[in-house]
Amino acid sequence: MTAQTPIAQAAARPAGPRLNEPAPAFDALTTHGQKRLEDYRGKWLVLFSHPADFTPVCTTEFIGFAKRHDDFAAANTALLGLSIDSHYSHIAWVLNIKEKFGTEIRFPIIADLNMAVAQAYGMIQPGASDTAAVRATFIIDPEGVLRAMVYYPMNAGRSVDEIYRLLIALQTADENGCAMPENWKPGDAVIVPTPKTPEEAAARASEGYDTVDWYFSTRQL
């Protein structure tokens, strides 16, 4: 059999989730009972995977998410963890984090032993591991549409603060019909949509925005 080139191998892999398309449906056992994607309709959802229970980096991440739980909830956002561990391993780990670190994990964790959810969301990266999910994070909007996804390697923990910042940026952009500059935070100026015609571009300087050039204008909300 002829060996495939790297390009051919990549083309043969199953397609993963794609931005601005419906997120893959799931129906999975969690530490808070059975959960489906449909259960989160009307809310934003942050679905995040970790390689394994009872591991140091993952523990710090779960503590980080737990400390921001109320902030996410105030933004109409639910948290949902996942790893390819058993239901009882999740329960034991949650109890251990509370006992050893004094932090209560109030969000559910999917037990994905058959890798069904992990495969659907592209959480399994063969270059990292065939049996553990990498540190993948997915932000899903209230209509069930995948709006953002971020992947981290096994040996570097993700920033919960950045995930929260990204969530608020997406929500604010939706509400105000604008785009967000690098490292935008609430209170910062936002980017005005670029003109679509030469006439609109010529008029941009007189529209009252903070305009550097016709394609780059900002405003306060």
How would you concisely characterize the structure shown here?
The chain has 221 residues and is of the alpha+beta class. It has helices spanning 6-12, 56-67, 69-74, 87-101, 116-120, 160-176, 198-203, and strands spanning 27-30, 33-36, 44-49, 77-83, 109-111, 135-140, 146-152, 190-191, 210-213, 216-219. 25% of the residues are buried.
CATH architecture of the largest domain: 3-Layer(aba) Sandwich
Specify Rg, calculated over alpha carbons: 20 Å
Structural class: alpha+beta
CATH topology of the largest domain: Glutaredoxin
Strand order, largest beta sheet: 5-4-3-6-7
The portion of residues assigned to helices is 25-40%
The biggest sheet, with number of strands, parallel, antiparallel or mixed sense and barrel status, is:
5 strands, mixed
CATH C-level of the largest domain: Alpha Beta
Bin the strand percentage: 15-25%
Low-confidence stretches: 6-14
N-to-C order of helices and strands: HEEEHHEHEHEEHEHEE
SS summary, helix count = 7
**The number of domains:** 2
CATH superfamily of the largest domain: Glutaredoxin
Shape: elongated
Q: Please state the average pLDDT score.
A: 91
Number of strands: 10
Distance between the termini: 61 Å
